TrEMBL record:
SUPFAM superfamilies: all-alpha NTP pyrophosphatases, HisI-like. It comes from Hevea brasiliensis. This is Phosphoribosyl-AMP cyclohydrolase domain-containing protein. Residues 87-160 form the Phosphoribosyl-AMP cyclohydrolase domain. Pathway: Amino-acid biosynthesis; L-histidine biosynthesis; L-histidine from 5-phospho-alpha-D-ribose 1-diphosphate: step 3/9; Amino-acid biosynthesis; L-histidine biosynthesis; L-histidine from 5-phospho-alpha-D-ribose 1-diphosphate: step 2/9. Pfam families: PRA-CH (PF01502), PRA-PH (PF01503). InterPro entries: HisE, PRib-ATP_PPHydrolase-like, PRib_AMP_CycHydrolase_dom, PRib_AMP_CycHydrolase_sf. It catalyses: 1-(5-phospho-beta-D-ribosyl)-5'-AMP + H2O = 1-(5-phospho-beta-D-ribosyl)-5-[(5-phospho-beta-D-ribosylamino)methylideneamino]imidazole-4-carboxamide; 1-(5-phospho-beta-D-ribosyl)-ATP + H2O = 1-(5-phospho-beta-D-ribosyl)-5'-AMP + diphosphate + H(+). Keywords: Amino-acid biosynthesis, ATP-binding, Histidine biosynthesis, Hydrolase, Multifunctional enzyme, Nucleotide-binding.
Amino acid sequence: MAVSSLRCIQSLGFSSRGRAFFPVGDCSRANARKSMNCRLVFASAKNSDRDLCVESKVETLLDSVKWDDKGLAVAIAQNIDTGAILMQGFVNRDALATTISSRKATFYSRSRSSLWTKGETSKNFINVHDIFLDCDRDSIIYLGKPDGPTCHTGSETCYYTSVNDFLEHKQIEGSRQALTTLYSLESTISQRKAELAVPQHVKPSWTKRLLLDSKFLCSKIREEADELCRTIEENEHGTRTASEMGDVLYHAMVLLALKDVKVEDVLDVLRHRFSQSGIEEKRSRGQQNEAMEEDGSWMWFQTLCPCT
């Protein structure tokens, strides 16, 4: 801090709401030319108070975790868009504090007795957007976006061995991810698309027909969207609405596959729009994703430290 800025302050105090105040002193009308320096000191004081607020809240949070007799707790990394469970590890107090600070999923290695950040070698970091504790406060979820495959094998997640497949003696080529309903459907559509590369000697399935004829596909999407709207116009039962929405979603996902767009990409767009109104979102289209990530970072910080 410059000496000229220090002269603007006789004594610096902080109110209970985290706002700095400056007693009357050298920062008077006679020294109006130094007002800019005063404002800089004010901003610096606010930042310091904010840091103290965050540090205090982090310590309170760390104290609330039920660490085991070795000072550890289970931490699970989950994809914020797909919901996929990426990996499990262990964290200690320092690992959790580091994750909160860096927003990179950090764990504690029991074999090396040291902290390690996922991606420090592979560069496939898991960028943490939020952290959740379970009801017993002895298990933690890192909710984040991976930069690439999470598993050291190159798999998207560390969970790709199905017990049912093993018990039923199913032969699975490659790995099979633990997929939810939506992503199982996406996977099936992708398989149908891949099969089109092989000469077809039988009547194509419905999905393949849609993939082979984009005009037909678009007409079906419009048709199903109209039927979905009719469920509200004609006051039909909610089960009918769910059924029609299922049709719209399925046909739209075929279109996504045709365009080589993943459902995860769509969810990523929606997540970035959470903090914006529809009008603001339209105005901001075309801006870089980095700007939106910064907005999300600030919202996360405000949640952690509401006194700012």
